[in-house]
């Protein structure tokens, strides 16, 4: 197997601990099981438009509140929403530092202006940090990967990609990227060591 010229990581659920679904569950007027909650979140029009950079934070908040029937003022919801990505998993930053001594390391995340700002654009953690809201394309759409390859100036076969979404893995593999499905830092470190 050829040594990759770029290691590309998703953030939430891979390197960043995220409380989105646990926190969201507490805001809903009626309970949803974990599977239904995740599917509704992935299909959310408000989230997609916000992560594509098409709407402002306040427009997102108003749309999301209406979509999910949440009883919060838009500013109060945005305050809670901004807190959902908690921070790097223990050992994640150390792993990135180690990897950056040997590889070019980047991230490709479906994110938004609020969460990106919270982490200062990840400029100290990666050689290249790419967010859907800046890219104008979102995973699992092929266009997100095609644009990322162009920005990084790499061939698909030279990239190892790590993500916690099976749909994103399928899209990356279809384009010739070597993709690995991981769930959390423990599984990621195991796959990296192998």
What does this structure look like?
The protein has 194 residues and is an alpha/beta fold. The protein has 2 domains: 6-17 and 86-193, HAD superfamily/HAD-like (Rossmann fold), CATH 3.40.50; 20-83. Helices cover 47% and strands 15% of the residues. The two termini are 12 Å apart. The relative contact order is 0.18.
- Would you identify the CATH H-level superfamily of the largest domain? HAD superfamily/HAD-like
Shape: globular
Radius of gyration: 17 Å
What is the CATH C-level name of the largest domain?
A: Alpha Beta
CATH fold call of the largest domain: Rossmann fold
Number of domains: 2
Share of helix, binned: 40-55%
The CATH architecture designation of the largest domain is 3-Layer(aba) Sandwich
* Assembly state: single chain
N-to-C series of helices and strands:
EEHHHHHEHEHEHHEHEH
- As laid out across the biggest beta sheet, the strand order is 5-4-1-6-7
Continuous helix count: 11
Secondary structural class: alpha/beta
Termini separation: 12 Å
How does the major sheet shape up? 5 strands, parallel
SS strand fraction: 5-15%
Low-confidence stretches: none
* Tally of strands: 7
Mean pLDDT: 95
